[in-house]
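so the lab meeting is tmrw and i was supposed to have these ready like two days ago... anyway. pasting both below. for each one the top line is the aa sequence and the line under it is the structure tokens. i havent really looked at them closely yet so no promises
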Amino acid sequence: MTETARTTLSDLASEVRSKNAGPFWVTMEVFLRDSAGYGIAADESFLDERVIAELYAVDESQVQIFRIPSLNVVKISFPRRVGQASLHDRDIHSGQHHVPLAMLPVPAG
């Protein structure tokens, strides 16, 4: 029996990206294709501070989520676990941080 492919956040988006927001913060942006996708991504029962905290092993109280309906964009910021360019920094530009968010399964229905 074959497994049915689940829809992910990246399937609803035209782009999901991450970048530095200074040496101690990461910002991720999800650009949704349309208002229907935005409605799913912006729904707090799907994507909230707790979900981001679990995905990125950060303190939930430090996660900031900005929902911008006029642009169909959800922006997320949180502190980096290690400072940029420190000995243990494995992604100096935070360019790969978006992958767990992009692969987040969208609830069926």
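ok protien two:
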Amino acid sequence: MSQHISDTFAQQLQQMRSDVIAQIRAQRGGKIGRAEAAGDLRDVQSGDWAQADAERDLAMAIDEREAETLAAIDAALQRIASGDYGLCVDCGVDIPTARLHANPTALRCVACQDKAEHDRDVTHPSL
């Protein structure tokens, strides 16, 4: 992959990272996490414990998803730095640029991604 294209994806990934961090800060409304905010809400409300528990569980799931997104972005930036960005981690073929534009954190070409998802579904049908 050319340096210009790598730089373009690096900029796109850096912007994605900044956007996710800004989204996290905006949703938290401060320095505390969603789980803590849900816990505070639970302490304040004197009635619906089930709803407060569900809100806390949802907040924790969102936190986990955001952490996974940031990890994927950081891993993609590391692949750019090491010169491996844009290569399928399974077969080594170039990942099409269109796929990278659609999903800049992509690890695999479409064929290998399909196989990985199929293998995961067979191994863990509930996922």
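from a quick look at the 2nd one: Residues 49-82 form the longest helix (34 residues). The chain has a mean pLDDT of 82. will dig more after coffe
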